[in-house]
Design a protein that fits this description.
Helices cover 40% and strands 20% of the residues. It is α/β, with parallel strands linked by helices. It is an enzyme of class 1 (oxidoreductase).
Length: 451
């Protein structure tokens, strides 16, 4: 007997075949309809979110939900505008499907094409953030991928309202298949979803470290994402202190509950006396708790008005706080800073503040992270800010896609061979024909339509 969740997955899988061949004009029309639907129904979205936040605040007071998750859950008019802008940015992106990546003549009249195509059916499992729905749906639609969404119960009203608006708008456009996008809502369905490797081609989890790790450990479906967001700022001995104050404040305080906010501040010993007292005052005024190693603590403990400095433990170096907390360590060299980052970091995003070109090159060459910044906030590590229109997530993987992942992470490729009755038997044996293996500048779409 087919369960409800299996029926949804099978329908989305079948629809993915049709969606893969939908033309650009139709996809862009569906995206514009989605953007208008959000714009015209702001009150519905805000009211649904109000109900979610009201319940989340009650759970927070009971200690059942952290503040960081409540913060991620909240939607306001500005966030809705951002959702709409993200969808319209995707409209402006080139259609990535059917692009010729490479072309090779195997022999006269026998040509090989490597062509981009959708992955197929994507499963997106996320916590708290309702803006994941328009971000991911728009990218998956443009890249021709069907999608199964599973949001957290804390955002159930928001997710359902946004999903229904977008789905109705997209399916109202002639040429769009029905059932390509599905929403599941119960916790029990997640286990079923993780077992459906026969249908689902890729999973993208968005949430806490424990949540992502659970997904990775309980499925055979490939998973794109990261478990931790332990990011660092390193203030070099050659740092411009004005830039350092600005970058270190923004990287921690601008939005502390996200994966690209820094958790650890590393300072070269020759800069610490000049930099740390003023930086500590800035952090203190922003309500940041500072967890200090022995050297930094000895500098700050004599500043009477600092409200929150404590001694760091070994555990702090590998902790993602997602809060107004930062660990601070003094290092004796750039090599020590790089070693610390590669040892304790999560290969997500790290920044050096320096005016020294040799140190800049060493840091960017040797820090093994998906994004490495020079004199710029780690908060720039984002699909929208990287010009991808939006992002489906940030990956610390080294296979398929890395860093903020936009549409390129939702594509794979296929090989297409165009021949004229060619057979392998002619290329085997003493009288075998040879391959030319000559690079071609031809595009498959033009060739296949012409011939």
């Amino acid at each position: 007997m087919v369960t409800d969740i299996e029926a949804k997955v099978i329908q989305a899988k079948r629809a993915s075949i049709v969606l893969a061949s939908v033309d650009t004009v139709t996809k862009n029309a569906a995206l514009e309809a989605m953007a208008r639907a959000l714009d015209e129904n702001r009150d519905r979205v805000l009211e649904a979110n109000r109900r979610d936040v009201e319940l989340a605040e009650k759970l927070k007071r009971k200690g059942e939900l952290p503040q960081a998750m409540v913060d991620r859950l909240k939607v306001n008019d500005s966030k809705i505008t951002g959702m709409i802008s993200g969808i319209r940015d995707v409209i402006r992106l080139d259609d990535p499907v059917g692009k010729t990546i490479d072309a090779l003549e195997l022999d006269n009249g026998l040509d090989l094409y490597q062509v981009s195509c959708p992955i197929g059916l994507i499963g997106v499992i996320f916590e708290a953030r309702p803006d994941v729905v328009p971000q991911v749906m728009s990218l998956c639609l443009k890249s021709g991928n069907s999608t199964i969404f599973k949001g957290g119960s804390e955002a159930a009203c928001s997710n359902r309202t946004i999903f229904d608006l977008l789905l109705e708008a997209a399916e109202s456009v002639e040429g769009m298949p029905e059932g390509a996008f599905q929403l599941i809502e119960t916790r029990e369905e997640v286990k079923d979803l993780l077992s459906m490797d026969a249908y689902i081609d890729l999973l993208i989890p968005r949430g806490s470290n424990e949540f992502v790790k659970f997904i990775q450990d309980n499925t055979r479906i490939p998973v794109l994402g990261h478990a931790d967001g332990i990011c660092h700022a390193y203030v070099d001995s050659y740092a411009d202190l004005g830039k350092a104050y600005s970058v270190c404040l923004d990287s921690k305080v601008q939005y502390p509950a996200v994966c690209n906010a820094i958790e650890t501040l590393l300072i070269h010993e020759s800069a610490v006396d000049r930099f740390l007292p003023a930086m500590a005052r800035i952090y203190d005024s922003a309500g940041v708790e500072m967890r200090c190693d022995a050297r930094s603590y000895s500098i700050l403990e004599h500043i009477d008005f600092l409200k929150s400095i404590v001694r760091a433990t070994e555990e702090d170096w590998s902790t993602e706080y997602n809060d107004l907390i930062i660990s601070i360590r003094v290092v004796d060299s750039i090599e020590s800073a790089i070693e610390h980052i590669n040892t304790y970091g999560s290969h997500h995003t790290d920044v050096i503040i320096t005016e020294n070109p040799l140190n800049r090159k060493a840091f960017t060459d040797l820090v093994d992270s998906s994004s490495v910044m020079v004199n710029a906030s780690t908060r720039f590590a984002d699909g929208f800010r990287y010009g991808k229109g939006a992002e489906v997530g940030i990956s610390t993987n080294k296979l398929h896609a890395r860093g903020p992942v936009g549409m390129e992470g939702l594509l794979i490729y296929k090989y297409i061979v165009l021949g004229d009755g060619h057979k392998v038997a002619d290329y085997v044996g003493p009288d075998a024909r040879g391959f030319t293996h000559r690079k071609l500048s031809k595009d498959l779409s033009e060739t296949i339509n012409r011939e």
